[in-house]
Amino acid sequence: MEKIYQMEYRGLSLFDEISTVELAIDEEKQTIHIFDVGQVVTPIFNFDVSGYELSDGFYKMADVLRHKKILTDQHVEGDLTLSKWLIRNNAYFYTPKKRIKKYVQGSIREIVDQAHEQWLFDEYVQRV
After folding, report:
1. Cβ distance 93 to 109 under 8 Å?
2. How far apart are CA 45 and CA 31, in angstroms?
3. Which residue has the higher pLDDT, 128 or 115?
């Protein structure tokens, strides 16, 4: 049985407009694929450290998912903190202009060569 779920999350965009984010959640790979045209949860660039960091919108969305027990091992005793939940799971951000950012083990990087990540498009993007 396929364990990929689709859902929507609504939040405020960078322009303070309500926008919808589409999610494809792959439980087996513990990964969230985020289609964020309205830039609600997209990572932001921090010029002080010259790198991307997770946005407040993403933290809010992740906290909602964590409380709904999505991508949470049911055998874990007690509640996971948000930071532990984030470290255990991965996220791919699909944004305008066909840019993809990947969040893995606490760091964000932009995928420059999309030819190596073609499976992402085939498996997730076409679904949503």
Report:
1. no
2. 22
3. 115
